[in-house]
Amino acid sequence: MPADYVHGYSQREAQRLHDQAASVRDLLHHDTAFAPGELVLEPGCGVGAQTVTLAADSPEASFIGVDIACESAREARRLVGTRGLTNVEFASADIYRLPFREAQFDHVFLCYVLEHVPDPDGALASLRRVVREGGTITVIEGDHGSCYFHPDTPAARAAWKCLIDVQAAIGGDSLIGRRLYPLLACAGFREVAVSPRMIYADASRPALRHSFVATTITPMVEGAREQALAMGMIDEATWEQGIRELHAIPEGGEGTFCYTFFKAVARR
Ligand SMILES: C[S@@+](CC[C@H](N)C(=O)[O-])C[C@H]1O[C@@H](n2cnc3c(N)ncnc32)[C@H](O)[C@@H]1O
Q1: Class assignment of domain 11-267?
Q2: Nearest CA to ligand 1 atom 11
Q3: What's the CA gap between 163 and 214, in Å, rounded?
Q4: Ligand 1 centroid to 120 CA: how many Å?
Q5: What is the pLDDT of residues 63-110, one digit of tens each?
Q6: Which of the listed residues 4, 5, 109 should we mutate to test ligand 1's pocket, taking the one with most ligand atoms within 8 A of CB?
Q7: Ligand 1 in contact with 140 (CB < 6 A)?
Q8: Per DSSP, which regions of 54-171 are E strands?
């Protein structure tokens, strides 16, 4: 398990991944389906938050989810069991050293993984090896630079920026969404097609605003607290104020929030 993974592996983070997946399920998954009999690899599957959607939406395809964290893969296995899904297996594996044959998979699907690995080019080269000629890769990433909100206060903005800077300091790139096209093209994939998926929430959509801002985004920022303070990026008072102000967005009548995910599909 990598010690420097910005979000960590707590129960709270596992729940956040499930909440995040649920709040943007249709936005991100509505156009993904795999044909009967096809074999799909999901690297960095985490606790299975995307896997259950993939497996349910393509019940006649088969999936192998892998994660570098054994406990996450175990948790994912438990989850698909409780959902009665029988078309998924899990294993623990490093995206750079996949224990699979060349061209073993028809497709690869990964979500919120490249932003955390120190060498996304190397990860894509490793994934390209295991996809058959003509198969596809689907990559979903966020881009924290695409986020804006109202009220836009200096402290809330400073706390948000800490998340970007902490992730960068430990070798990740939370601004990777905008780089998906060049990354995939340079890795040798063809027919690269990237579509931005914007989520916008205001008081007219209170459920979406709550699930996205209160249970997904703000807890993600809060997860960077210790590292941001230890790295001297922000003082404690500004941090606490910023977090309070982020939490207030889904509570008040005037709070709005906007964020863009990027979904790329390309062919081997
Ligand atoms: C933000 S989580 C996303 C999990 C899941 N894809 C989702 O959308 O809920 C990133 C995952 O990538 C995994 N990961 C990080 N580095 C990895 C590596 N080198 N090989 C495999 N998985 C890795 C982490 O353990 C974590 O579970």
Answers
A1: alpha beta
A2: 44
A3: 16
A4: 13
A5: 999 999 999 999 999 999 999 999 999 999 999 999 999 999 999 999
A6: 5
A7: no
A8: 62-67, 88-92, 105-111, 131-142, 148-150
